[in-house]
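TL;DR need structure tokens for one chain.
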Amino acid sequence: MPLSNIRVLDLTRLLPGPYCSMMLADFGAEVIKIEQPNGGDYLRNFDPKYGNEDSVLFQSINRNKKSVCLDLKDEEDRQSFLELLASADILIESFRPGVMKNLGLDYDTLKEYQPSLIYCSLTGYGQTGPYKDKAGHDINYLSTAGILQMMSDNKKKPVLPSVQMADIGMGAYPAVIGILMAYIHRQNTGVGQYIDVSMLDGAVSWLHMLLPATFHGQSMNREKSLLYGGYACYQIYETKDRRYLSMGGLEDKFWSTFCRVIGKYEYVSQLHASLEIQREMITSIQHVIKKKTLDEWMILFDEEDACVTALQTLDELVVDPHVASREMIIAKGGMKQIGIPIKMSETPGEIRRTSPTLGEHNEELLNRAKKNY
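>> reply
TL;DR here they are.
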């Protein structure tokens, strides 16, 4: 596996940091989860639980890892941590700025013990700037970045996304990329480095389809935007049985097919019509789509190349044949797991073990680290 020679000390908890370290673990890294002795990662106690064990959420994103309990405020445990650090390549932490420095475990201190250390801090607002000490969660970073405000039209309250966009896509993924880039740099130079990842920074970096127009004086209004509900060709329509289908026919060929299947031939030439006409088309198309059930429409579109998709429920997703063929829902250790999204021909990832119990690897890892220190 491509990361099998890498040791990671993971001081993070909840979602963004553990997701980041899971991705490294899935491709072979030895990830040692450092947890407080009195309860460990808060996510262990969330509901629902799998049997009498930890929460299913904890088990989902802490597979392939080992757990060691250490109180980093305790001098003996701190020494044990430094012994582990001596053989570590990467450290990931997600405390507020200044916490690791107060513990004497900041990058400038630890690089004296381990000069080649790659040290990643993953926080909401980053290590600098006026917001750096503010508390926050996914909703707050999306709010500050202007994303939630764009998730509404002028008549409705903004809608909360049902997945943690900032935590995962704007935090965990940039952290993984930064760590791997730093690792390549270290392979070339032998030099480690510090990585400062902010979820707000990540959120702002997702705005390439919005901000450039704003830079040039164009007011971004959801109802007037092609990809945000203003156009009939990129829209969600309700069916007879109160289900929904999505239409993403941005190109002429897809739009033409869609119009033919629903019997609106007169709209074929109106793909890029004015917003006034777009609103009329949306209303008219909605009236047509409402005449059939979702299944009836999916049968009609099944053999058509039109970018029409059913809005699936989660129950439908887990039995979707394509998702199954991509091994994105798999059984491991008696419970279902989300699969690995990155497919590699020579060095594929693997779910080797289920999540660790709290402190499961104390004896194994701490004794070995003490002998080798």
